[in-house]
């Protein structure tokens, strides 16, 4: 298994494998890694003939095999890309399991003139290649490329390039502040840069502009946790809760943050049910439009009754931890399990 930086070094040395599987959270970085391979393998001007793209969510094994078996036109090699190949995910339905089994066998005897590239995106930041049994198996016959977070200096430089490509300069201190505050995902970074540029049109970017538009990472974690509760993803929620407690051993702070998030959802839900639109809710609750839009989308996962019960569970847990010497970690995990029992 290698990362994008290792891949770049291999390609510079002219080392190209017969097949690759990319995985990670950042689709933009994955696409850039794929472009490195494609530009080295496919002759300029022959992309339409020797670069075949298939949608991994709908394609079949026969379509992939036929694309791989077709001899390249006016060139030594061709590239077949299967994007968003969800049959590579660890847990799939019977159809995807069948496709995975057929691909596992086919990768052992690929035609030498084809470079097959497949990729899939992780569901969340706690997923890793080592947890995926399929990747471990396929790694025996295929190069696995994990699109990891970039190291700090390289990350800052790449974020700066996003601003420059949009024709906007940003100061070094503001660049670092933005880079540390935004989620480390270049699909998201490009959207946030675009918002920031539009917001500061005609003037320099200041730190308070970044604060207004970009939520704190701790707020993002709480948002993700509530999303896991809504989707009843118990393991993901417990993993994230453990991560939050590891980063900041402040049980009361985390409970209050979760409770406040449910309160905000409740307020927004009531306004939505009373026919209020985005701009009206923004004005009433003094929220940033982007934050309000995300909150409204999450509201759709809950009913009013559900949110009332969830707030009550948080309050009960808060009182128990304040008034007794019970194990705080156990009590918070119990709180999570109670939230999963709440139905619409």
UniProtKB/TrEMBL annotation:
Catalytic activity field: DNA(n) + a 2'-deoxyribonucleoside 5'-triphosphate = DNA(n+1) + diphosphate
Gene Ontology terms: biological process: DNA-templated DNA replication
EC number, UniProt record: 2.7.7.7
DNA polymerase III delta N-terminal domain location: 20-146
InterPro entries tied to this protein: DNA_pol3_clamp-load_cplx_C, DNA_pol3_delta-like_C, DNA_pol3_delta_N, DNA_polIII_delta, P-loop_NTPase
Keywords attached to this entry: DNA replication, DNA-directed DNA polymerase, Nucleotidyltransferase, Transferase
A Pfam family that the UniProt record links to this protein: DNA_pol3_delta
Record bears the keyword Transferase: yes
GO MF term list: DNA binding; DNA-directed DNA polymerase activity
Ranges where the DNA polymerase III delta subunit-like C-terminal domain occurs: 219-338
Cellular component GO terms, alphabetical: DNA polymerase III complex
Group of enzyme by EC: transferase
Family: Belongs to the DNA polymerase HolA subunit family.
Descriptive protein name: DNA polymerase III subunit delta
Organism from which the protein derives: Clostridium gasigenes
